[in-house]
Automatic annotation (TrEMBL):
GO terms for molecular function: calcium ion binding. Residues 132-214 form the Sarcoglycan alpha/epsilon second domain. Residues 348-359 have a biased composition (Polar residues). This is Sarcoglycan, alpha. The chain crosses the membrane at residues 292-315. Residues 348-390 are annotated as: Disordered.
Length: 390
């Protein structure tokens, strides 16, 4: 029994290795046709725990995030977009290729519980096809891109539009999030949606209902009234959330579009021969004197005027003279106080002792005079005498 279990294990590992690691899913997409691929979380979950379905009987439901890029490139091809609303939601790769070619897309799934990653490879072969000549774009207000991408919803929308166009021959050409077209992020309230643009195309000319969009009456109504009803007999929406906003409908007639101008002819990449190089003549001489006056002389004159003004205020005017007088009297009073203090036969306080010079062992000479040029700190002859005030 145990041997059988280990054999089963070995076989499963081999199968997972063969199909899980090298799985390459191939698609062929015609140019100008809308393409959707749903990144199923269950498939990737199976890669993370290939044996849990066998042993535990069920798969975990891990949150995971998808990242996609073109192989050996940092990003996706410009026509392809990835959307995933929430780590517990499936992702979608969608878009409309515009030119033929082959793209190898790497899809990485990051498991947010175990931090494991797994990779799938998708190979898109885009084949050339004629564009549908008559196209129309509709705005669906009450939808979000992830809600529209599942094929069942795409079919619902297509069925309504087939009735509006009055033809079975209708293909979805493009589906875009309104946020990618300058729409606003809605309030996080019920009944507010991002909105999606759905473009469809057909070989058949527009129906009478659709042609009403081109009438001047329609344009007048849409600028005047904020909410215009779809004209009677043209309202085919079976599910309320799939209803189109009539005023944002646009018809595109590719048969009437003027042909693209021819591409410019590419030359040899070598300049034509054309004589010798003539250096340009030296520029005419310029008179710098006005600049000199403005930048040097004028500020100098202003500085001199300011100096004279200050001198006049300080020396010529009464306030200045009084200030000078004050200055002299304060000076004289200080001298007086000093001489009075010098006459007192009190030993100067300890704090006035000179500093002991540690390098020469000297002390500053004693104070003999009271002239203001001599420092106020008096010298002491005998450092051991009692210097405390008595
Ligand atoms: C589809 O819509 C996107 C976004 O508006 C745009 O960039 C792209 O060119 C469209 N593709 C086609 C084929 O119309």
């Amino acid at each position: 029994m145990a041997g059988c279990g280990s054999w089963l294990f070995f076989l499963t590992v081999c199968v997972v290795f063969l199909f899980g690691a090298n799985a390459e899913i191939k698609f062929t997409i015609p140019v100008g046709k809308f393409f959707t691929y749903e990144l199923m979380r269950e498939t990737f979950q199976n890669d993370f725990e290939p044996l849990s379905r066998i042993y535990a009987g069920h798969l975990y439901n891990d949150p995971m995030i998808f990242k996609c890029n073109k192989q050996n490139f940092p990003d996706l091809p410009e026509w392809l977009r990835l959307t995933q609303r929430h780590p517990y939601d499936n992702g979608f790769l969608y878009g409309t290729p515009t030119s033929p070619g082959k793209h190898t897309i790497e899809v990485y799934a990051y498991n947010k519980r175990s931090y494991e990653t797994t990779r799938h490879i998708l190979v898109f072969k885009v084949v050339a096809e004629k564009m549908l000549p008559y196209q129309a774009e509709f705005f669906i207000k009450l939808r979000e891109i992830e809600k529209v991408l599942p094929s069942s919803v795409q079919d619902e929308i297509k069925q309504d539009l087939q009735k509006l166009w009055d033809t079975e021959d209708l293909e979805i050409v493009n589906i875009t999030n309104a946020l990618d077209r300058g729409g606003r992020v809605p309030l996080p309230l019920a009944g507010h949606y991002e909105g999606v643009f759905v473009k469809v195309g057909s070989e058949q000319y527009f129906s009478n209902c659709l042609l009403r969009v081109l009438t001047p009456e329609h344009q007048r109504q849409c600028t005047a009234v904020s909410r215009v009803k779809i004209p009677g007999g043209c309202n085919f929406c079976s599910v309320p959330s799939n209803c189109i906003t009539w005023c944002k409908t646009e018809l595109i007639d590719l048969t009437k579009q003027e042909p693209v101008p021819p591409a410019p002819t590419v030359g040899l990449g070598i300049l034509e021969e054309g004589g010798d190089f003539n250096p340009p003549e030296s520029p005419p001489s310029r008179d710098y004197f006005p600049d000199y006056i403005v930048t040097v002389i004028v500020p100098l004159i202003i500085a001199i005027i300011l100096c004279l003004l200050l001198a006049y205020i300080m020396f010529g005017r009464r306030e200045g003279v009084i200030q000078l007088y004050h200055h002299y009297t304060i000076h004289g009073n200080t001298d007086d106080l000093r001489s009075m203090a010098g006459n007192r036969s009190v030993t100067p306080p300890l704090s006035t002792l000179p500093m002991f010079n540690s390098r020469t062992g000297e002390r500053a000479p004693p104070l003999h005079s009271d002239s203001p040029s001599i420092p106020l700190i008096a010298a002491q002859h005998d450092p051991y005498s009692d210097t405390l005030p008595r």
